Structures are given as structure tokens and as C-alpha cells.
Amino acid sequence: MATSGSGGASAGASPVNTVALAEGFRSELIRATGTGEAFVVATGLPVSHRSKSAAMSWYKFAVEYVDARWPQLGGNSRKNIAKTLTATTNALLRAKPTQFAPAAVRTALREWAFNTNRRPEAPRDVVAILKRVERNSLPVSAWEDPEKVDQVLQAIDTRLDGKQAAAWSRKRNRRILNVAMKYAIRRRILRTNPLFKGKGPDGAHEDHERRGQAVPAESRAGSGTPRLDTAPAAPRQAAPRLLRQAVLLRPTPRRSRSHPEGGKAVDRHGGDPG
Predict the structure, then answer these.
(1) DSSP the chain
(2) What is the pTM of this model?
(3) What is the pLDDT of residues 166-193, one digit of tens each?
């Protein structure tokens, strides 16, 4: 009878020995504790166990993502991605660079950091802003915090004047971030997509198909609220059948019959109708 060790020797023939893995992981934790290695409070794991998302800043990832997508994109797509990543990056800073004007920071990100062609030619003042942003950028692992995700979505949904952006703008920004998250998963920087596809920050579906549901119809003239469509009418094919049934079920009226000898008509019960 083969032991678990001999079974594990065959290439992928037997399932992984989870007990051995657990013991190995426990040994690593004990060794990290013995050497005085720091532990990450959020995960409870040693610093050496940090994932790629914890080791890479969001700013560095965003720049890498732009460079990877740049050759495939047209002019409008490049501008839209730069705008969305600018708002996202501002929301993922540990501290705002107060020594620079907010408009200057946005311009440095939108026009230089997230522009593959122009970034190498950035002037000194822009380079200083971008270095400050890079130092203050949170790691990509910030996306693993639901509260931080809500803050980012709130930021990309809000215009500079504090009002909510249009629905089409919010949908576009979410689509851009979803593609960026998929890129992070392919690069093994994130394990799962932290964004909920098709849902807004309040959990409501934004672009779902309402099949089989009552949906608001056009408001009638002069009414302030829309009405709900009722169940659809019966098919046209059912109308002739219903009409035939109505004729067959209609009661027959009482009619007089002629005298068998050709005399005048008499009542069905024998009475003279006259």
C-alpha cells in the first residue's frame, strides 16, 4: 500500500496533502514570529506573505495599465480612461498633496501620468507632483477593503462641483474600472474583481434587463407619475374562438311554429297568439 508521500511523488496523480500544507504554513508562521518579522494587521500574516496587490502602489499599477492598453485605444478612449483613473487615483491617496493646487494635481495625472506619449516629456513641476502622488498612493490591496471601494465609486460618480455625474458617465467610469480590474486579475495582482458589475453604490442595478417584470410606461400627458403596464392582452388568435363560444352559448329565443294543417300559427303551448 502506497504511503501519502509516495502518492505525492507521482506527478499530480493524487490530491494535495492538505495536512502537510497546513503544517508547512504553521511552521512558516512560527519561524516569522521567532525572527521578529512584522505582521500585517489587516490580514494577520507576515509581511513576507504579502500579495502582489500589497507590494504594488495603485499609481504604479495605473500607469502600467495605461501603457499596456495605449496601442489598442483610440483618442476618445484614451481621454476617458485618463479622466477615470485621475479621479480614482485622487481617491486612493493616503494624504492630499496640499503644497500643490488640486487642479494642478488633476492636470498632471490626466495630461501627463496617464498619457504614454507625453509622460517622458513632463516638465519639472509636473514631475514633482507625480512623485508626490506616487509616494502617497495606497497599494492595490486597498481594493480589498469594501469601504475604500465605496469611496472610490463615490469619487468617480461625483463632478468637481459636488453634484452627481450623469448616468451615462457613471456607467462609463465603472466599465473602465472593471476592465482595469480584469487586467489586474490576469496579471495576478488581484485575485477577484472588487467591483459589482451592473450595480451602483446603493446596490441597485443600473443596466439590467427587466424581462418578465412590470416596467414604467410613458407618463400620460398631465400626470406627474408614470403608470405601470398591466399584463399583456390576449393574443389576436383567441378572438375568433371566443366569439364562436359566445354564439354557441347564447340562449335560443322562444319562437312560434305553424299549425301542421296549414292553419294560423299557434303558441308552442297550444294557445292562440292573437
Answers:
(1) ---HHHHHHSTT-S---HHHHHHHHHHHHHHHHHTT--B-TTT-SBGGG--HHHHSBHHHHHHHHHHHHGGG--HHHHHHHHHHHHHHHHHTBSS--TTS-HHHHHHIIIIIIT-TTTGGG--HHHHHHHHHHHHHBPBGGGGG-HHHHHHHHHHHTB-TTSSBPPHHHHHHHHHHHHHHHHHHHHTTS-SS--S-TTB-TTS-BSS---TTS--B-PPPTT-SSPPBP-SPPPPTTHHHHHHHHHHHHSPPPP--B--TTS---B-TTS----
(2) 0.58
(3) 999 999 999 999 999 999 999 989 888 9
